[in-house]
Amino acid sequence: MVITRFAPSPTGFLHVGGARTALYSYLFAKKNHGKFLLRIEDTDLERSTEASVQAIFEGMEWLGLASDEKPVFQTSRFDRYKYYIDVLLKEGKAYKCYCNKERLEHLREQQTHNKEKPRYDGHCRHGVMSQSTDQPFVVRFKNPETGDVVFNDLILGEIKFSNQELDDLIIARTDGSPTYNFTVVVDDMEMAITHVIRGNDHVNNTPRQINMFLALGHKAPQYAHVPMILGDDGKRLSKRHGAEGVMDYEREGYLPEALLNYLVRLGWSHGDQEIFSLTEMIECFDLTKVNKSAAAFNTDKLQWLNQYYIKTLPVEKVAAALQKQFEYLGVDTSLGPVLSAVIAVMKDRAKTLKEMAEASRFWFEPVKKHDETAVAKFISADTATVFTKIHEQLSGLSDWNKEAIHTVIQSVVESLGLKFPQVAQPLRIALTGNTVSPGVDVTLALFSKEEALDRIDQAKKRFAIPA
Ligand code: GLU
């Protein structure tokens, strides 16, 4: 059975690069009717934080990438690492190294001086140093001294490293704690991972890990190294480019469906298909078709997808996300129109739900400020009469709907001999504070009749220009 894992280090939020790697691991597992697991690589006690573990869980949950088993925490597995360190020592596949800092520094200086690549010289491997057992030591893995490590990366193709390039890696520090590359091997082995899909910043770790797998008497998993994501300026994606963490996208008003769809296409394609539901992604995903080179983030495309999902997802889902945005803005939606009605009239006008909430908040809270330019342009000596007439006629409406409202506005336009915008724009200003809103009839229809009449009345008082 195919088993993949996502193995983030909890030293920050879940960023989009990690999310894409997680998505690819998830899709590959699901496509092969296998399992997708989550492992928290938290052995770096200084840099790992509980807040970041929670941020990773939150991001994964928001994206809907559920692990098929309970997450594994490396900090709960120290006994397993110790066990395998002892096994390797006992089998002579690892050794205690007593070289002190001074010796290692001296060695490095010499190598740098001779223009050689700094590497451990195997001093203790050959038992040169006879030390008393109470000296501090690290444990080093006996990397093979000859031959090559060759693996067929499912994305990058054949990769070959000469063992001569790889020195004897420290697998346990002087305090006995295991090092990163070793814990990954033990976990991938015990979790029976068949495919390791991870960022290509780990390519150089892979030959070392494969050698350790073999030393532990195990076949190494298959590897697939995913290229990194660049910002739209070609530089490595970072905070400078705006949102970087997955939950920043939630905050900015993106739907998880849009981000997933965006991420799956970032560096992978299936013909010219752009829109993928999660089910379609699982069906079509092919790891071997992931690009070898880095992909550049394109916010316009993400926005395009987001708007597509705003328009097409079940409205309850979009409404829940929109409600969240209103909460972020501190706007109480309980007394305004139902959110599904807001979405219906705003979905063509907003690319994100944050934008939609900002552009719709006037339905839920009093107008605090009237746009001065709009006022200067559209409020005139005629406006008081317009407001009076409209108020009068709307008050008489028994059916408060868009069509009836439209008829009223039209009749006021005609009776006063004005052009449509001469009525519509002052009305919009009265209702929303500016002139940017959906059709004025639609805008009015989403208010309760009382609220609409009240706003017109207030505007009339405010903007009444004495004759
Ligand atoms: N913990 C590593 C990281 O966050 C990933 C290691 C792996 O996938 O093997 O970069």
Describe the structure concisely for a colleague.
By secondary structure, the chain is mainly α.
Description:
The longest helix is centred in the first third of the chain and has 16 residues. It contains 19 helices and 12 strands. Helix 15 crosses helix 16 and helix 15 runs antiparallel to helix 19. The strands form 5 sheets. It has a 3-stranded parallel sheet with strand order 1-2-3. Strands 4-5-8 form a 3-stranded antiparallel sheet. It is mainly alpha-helical. Helix 1 links the parallel strand 1 and strand 2. It has 5 domains: 118 residues, HUPs (Rossmann fold, 3-Layer(aba) Sandwich); 95 residues, Glutamyl-tRNA Synthetase, domain 3, CATH 3.90.800.10; 74 residues, Glutamyl-tRNA Synthetase, domain 2 (Orthogonal Bundle), CATH 1.10.1160; 52 residues, Helicase, Ruva Protein, domain 3 (Orthogonal Bundle), CATH 1.10.8; 101 residues, Arc Repressor Mutant, subunit A (Orthogonal Bundle), CATH 1.10.10. The protein is elongated, with a radius of gyration of 32 Å. The chain binds glutamic acid. Glutamic acid binds next to strand 9.
What is the strand and helix layout of this fold?
Elements: E1 3-6, H1 16-31, E2 35-40, H2 50-63, E3 72-73, H3 78-90, E4 94-97, H4 101-113, E5 138-141, E6 148-153, E7 157-162, E8 170-172, H5 180-190, E9 195-199, H6 206-215, E10 222-226, E11 229-230, H7 246-251, H8 256-265, H9 278-284, E12 295-296, H10 299-312, H11 315-329, H12 339-346, H13 353-360, H14 372-378, H15 383-395, H16 402-416, H17 420-432, H18 440-446, H19 449-463
Helix pairs in contact: 1-9, 5-6, 8-10, 11-13, 15-16, 15-19, 16-17, 16-18, 17-19
Bound molecules: glutamic acid (GLU).
